[in-house]
Write a structure and sequence with these properties.
Blueprint lengths: L1 E6 L8 H11 L3 E7 L6 H5 L2 E6 L6 E6 L7 E4 L13 E7 L2 E7 L4 H12 L6 E6 L12 E2 L7 E3 L3 E3 L2 E6 L1 E8 L10 E7 L9 H9 L1
Parallel strand pairs: 1-2, 7-8
Antiparallel strand pairs: 1-14, 2-4, 3-4, 5-6, 6-7, 8-12, 9-12, 10-11, 13-14
């Protein structure tokens, strides 16, 4: 399964024609977008397929997913929010199922403790082979129980066009990453990341304590 994730930079970055060109060039099974505006709803008119958009609360942009395959409607999971004064609007995760794999599309908060807390809440809601992909806004390593970081190791964003950061990531559980790479930046301030993911053989699947208990009960 080929997955691409791209932070579009809302109104200032990639337009729907840029996204359509990426789809034609890379032919993903699933395209995840962050900072997607309502303009992206025209994507199926340009490249066919199926489009799902979830606007963030109090924002003009949100999370979107496109696929050439028909998908069950994605679920929306609210993520923890800051209690500090002047906090940003709440964040969500868009959860998509494709080919027996659960994929969570994320655009996490900038707070380095808060975005880790958001990830921990998210993975509790994911079952089976899963991937958490998108703009993590994380500095330094991100460690999740049972998950591996398989995304490209090169910078995907330059803050103020100077400081390089690897903000766009992919962490997986019970999946094998055949290939991961960062693509050309295009008109956004983020580079898209492309991943080839496959399910692990059953013999190699991680058995968590909860799964061990479930097996005993059977």
């Amino acid at each position: 399964m080929k997955v691409i994730s791209w932070n579009l930079l809302r109104l200032e970055g990639a337009a729907v024609e840029d996204v359509a060109a990426l789809v034609r060039r890379e032919r993903p099974d699933l395209l995840l977008m962050q900072e997607a505006t309502g303009e992206m709803e025209a994507l199926p008119e340009l490249v066919g397929g199926h489009f799902y958009w979830e606007k963030l609360p109090e924002r003009i942009h949100g999370l979107a997913a496109w696929s050439p395959h028909a998908l069950a409607p994605p679920k929306t999971l609210p993520l923890p929010v800051s209690r500090m004064p002047g906090r940003v609007p709440p964040r969500i995760a868009q959860i998509v199922r494709l080919g027996g794999i659960t994929v969570a599309n994320v655009h996490l908060s900038h707070g380095q403790l808060l975005n880790r807390w958001q990830l921990l809440r998210l993975i509790r809601a994911l079952d089976g082979p899963a991937a958490v992909i998108g703009d993590y806004n994380a500095v330094g390593p991100t460690v999740l129980p049972g998950f591996r970081d398989v995304g490209p190791r090169e910078p995907t964003h330059r803050a103020r066009k100077v400081l390089p950061f690897r903000l766009d990531r992919c962490l997986v559980r019970d999946l094998y990453c055949v290939e991961s790479r960062a693509l050309d930046q295009g008109p956004s301030d983020h580079r898209p990341i492309a991943l080839e993911l496959a399910a692990l053989p059953i013999a190699m699947v991680t058995v968590t304590p909860s799964r061990r208990l479930a097996r005993v009960r059977r």
